[in-house]
Amino acid sequence: METCWEEAGWERLAPGVARRRMPEWDETVGVVVGRTDILVVDTGATLRAGAELRSGITRLTGRRPTRIALTHPHFDHVLGSAAFAGCEVYGATGLDGLLRREREALREDAIRHGVDRDAATEAVDHLVSPHHLVCGELSLDLGGRTVLLANVGPGHTAHDLAVLVPGRPEVVFCGDLVEESGTPQAGPDAIPGHWPAALDRLLALGSADARYVPGHGSVVDAAFVRAQRDELAARFGVSG
């Protein structure tokens, strides 16, 4: 089964843990397979992308995904969510209200970045708000394995959620708190003064040997995250 993930365009990170770098915006989507539940980390930029992810995961595992963790509220990470009908959705505290208030801004941001207008409108019209909000940390039992959802922000946004998958190796899905394929993007919703501290919390979450999965780009190690933390502190004039 592990070979099948790679043949289907996924990167195997650990037993039962994989990620896919999506075309167009290079956003990462992750999957964690337990005996009873399957967790998807982020859902792509359109309903079509979400549907393709759902059907691909179902084909590879023989089961439908049951849970979704959204790392932050940008279009390329959340707009595929409605394609995962019946899934329980998790996000950082306040994400539900933001997605209700900012639907038009989310749609316009997607269009500005190249999503077809009709596809963006359809995805936003059917956008799913989180059913479960994470204030500190929340453990999820997937059957035979437990993952930890951690509200480590604010930083890249006001609603940054990381996902720790224990094991050998540990895997940490970072969302866009970490980027490898380019300079981390600080848009109008970023909170630069808190971003380095968010990366400190991210590093405390995973071990020194963990594999850190950025929102965009290749998997990195703790040394990379620490160096990016220092670069952001210098860039934003944050001491400590």
From TrEMBL:
This is MBL fold metallo-hydrolase. Residues 26-216 form the Metallo-beta-lactamase domain. Pfam families: Lactamase_B. Coiled coil: none annotated. It comes from Streptomyces javensis.
